[in-house]
Each structure stands twice: as structure tokens, then as C-alpha cells.
Amino acid sequence: MAEEENNSTEETPEADAQEETPEAAEEAAAADAPEAEETPAEEAPAEEPAPEEEAAPAEEPAPEEEAAPTEEPAAEAPAGDEEPEETLTPKEARKRERSIHTGETKPERTPEERAAERAAIRRAKVGARRRRRGQERAKRGEPGQGTPLAERRPGTKKVQLGTVVSDKADKTITVRVDIVRRHRRYEKVVRQSATVHAHDERNEASEGDVVRVVESRPLSRTKRWRLVEVVERAR
């Protein structure tokens, strides 16, 4: 029995050596490897740094202005695709202006204060218009005299010269009176005409005649003039 125990004790280390796994062998090899690699690394001579003069100069980066690509102008949209401009009424324009207003709001005012403010604005505009018109008149020079007003004493009757346009009614003629005057602001010659009914007691005037008529009392519903004389007969 003692011999068998000795044999068993002698075989144990050999069996352990044979039973070593391959993983353990790899770990042992990895532990020995760094020692082998460190030796030649220490023996390698240190490399001398290259002189600064021989170093290649670093290239300067191009300026940003040159590197940046030129922006191409945006292509204009065709005229057919353009949306028509929106036309707003004055009230809508004021609403839109108030909606985009970002400044300080005005304090609340009473209706009387608003009316006074509007009146002040109107007075300022009136003064500006008056000054502008005075400047325009000064540039044009003194206005022309135009046709002088007829001299007539108070109480005297008006006298007009006109052309007979109708004599169909009995003892009544229709006279067209041409009025030529100069506009007081624009100084443009304005031509107007007025038609009056005149009393012709003896039916002297005929259509196309140039006659002179004078004011009179109301002779009928439409007659307020009376024939004085026939200045020129119709040809």
C-alpha cells in the first residue's frame, strides 16, 4: 500500500504539467514578450532633429475674400409670376400701420382732445398750402390783368350781348350769352355760356342775329330780359 501511495505522489506533478491548458501557455508567452521587445528599443540610437533652416516653410492660407466664391445674382422671377400689388383703402392702411407699430403707444385721449389735435393739424396744413401758393405766384410773376370788370353803378340794369338761338315762340327769343373769363388761380381762359329768354315785342330778331338785351322785371315764368336792339343780322 505504501508503494502505491508513493507512485501516486510521483505521478501528480507530471500529470499537472501535462494538464496545463493552452490559455495558460499563451499568458506565459505574453509575459515574456515585453522583456524581449524592450531591449532593442533601448539600444536604437536617438534620431537628431532636422535643422530649422531646412524645414519647408508653411504655406500661408489664402485670404478669405479670395477663397469665398462670388455670389451670383439671383435670377429674376418672370414678370408673369409677379403678384399684383395689393391696393388698400386708407382705413385698412391705418389698421396695418397700427398692427406693425413697435414704439411706445400714445396715452388715451378724450374725443375733445382728438378733435383739437385734428384741428391743429388742419391749420398747419392750411398755412403750408398758403405759403406754397405764394411761392408759386412769386415764381410766375404778377398775374395778368385779364378782362376788366364792367363798371356798373348800384341800381343800374345789366346789359348782355348774345346770339339768338331760337325765335319760334311769339314775342320771345332765346339768347345764348357767351362768358369768357380767366381763372383766378390757374389763369387759364375759361369759356362758358348761359341761355336766357328775352321779350321781343315786335318779333324783330330772328335766329342767328346778334342782339343786345337788358334786365327787366319778371315778364313770365322764365323771362327776365328784354330786347334792346339787333346789333348784327344773320347772313
Show the helix and strand layout.
Blueprint: H1 2-18, H2 22-43, H3 64-67, H4 90-99, H5 111-140, E1 159-166, E2 172-182, E3 189-199, E4 210-215, E5 223-232
Parallel strand pairs: 3-5
Antiparallel strand pairs: 1-2, 1-4, 2-3, 4-5
Describe the structure.
It is built from five helices and five strands, in the order H-H-H-H-H-E-E-E-E-E. It is an alpha+beta fold and 235 residues long. It has a domain of 64 residues: Nucleic acid-binding proteins (OB fold (Dihydrolipoamide Acetyltransferase, E2P)), CATH 2.40.50.140. The chain has a five-stranded mixed β-barrel with strand order 1-2-3-5-4.
CATH architecture designation of the domain at 169-232: Beta Barrel
Sheet with the most strands: spatial strand order? 1-2-3-5-4
Helix content: 25-40%
What is the CA-CA span between the terminal residues?
182 Å
Alpha carbon gyration radius: 60 Å
Overall pLDDT: 76
Mind telling me the CATH class of the domain at 169-232? Mainly Beta
DSSP E strands, number: 5
What is the count of DSSP helices, taking H or I runs of 4+ residues?
5
Please provide the ordered H/E string of secondary-structure elements.
HHHHHEEEEE
CATH topology description of the domain at 169-232: OB fold (Dihydrolipoamide Acetyltransferase, E2P)
Low-confidence stretches: 8-18, 34-42, 65-69
General shape:
elongated
Largest sheet: 5 strands, mixed, barrel
Give the CATH superfamily of the domain at 169-232: Nucleic acid-binding proteins
- Give the structural class: alpha+beta
What proportion strand? 15-25%
